[in-house]
Specification:
disordered C terminus; 3 strands; 3 helices; flat; alpha+beta
Amino acid sequence: MGRISAIIPFLPFSKEERAVTTYKFMRKLFNETRRPVSVEAKQFARHLFLNFVEDGQLATFIAEKYYSPELGARSLLSAVNTQIRHKLTKALLIQGEEITDEVNDMAWNNYDVRVEHLKGDSKEISVKARGSRTVQKRIDY
């Protein structure tokens, strides 16, 4: 009991496996945000619709930029959290609306998540309320 009886080799993911794994974490976040808001449980980033614009390109971009062979899938989960979840939270705060359980009876808030092309070859992930004309501020963690 409590002894290691086998060694399982850890092999780095291929590019395709990285993108698929990233997409899996994106879909998990998508499903979480579709659930009802619960103020008591402090689950505020809910009752939302996330539109992953060009989702394959988005997953590939995150996977290529943030994958760490040492951390494997954990690096991709962390990237989805910092590049999408945290920016979604920031976008919700910028709107400044009070979030209560009554939000669940209202229409869905829609957010577009995409790879933004900046000056030169630079790119970053943006999360914007659909129809928003303001540019999402860059968030560095």
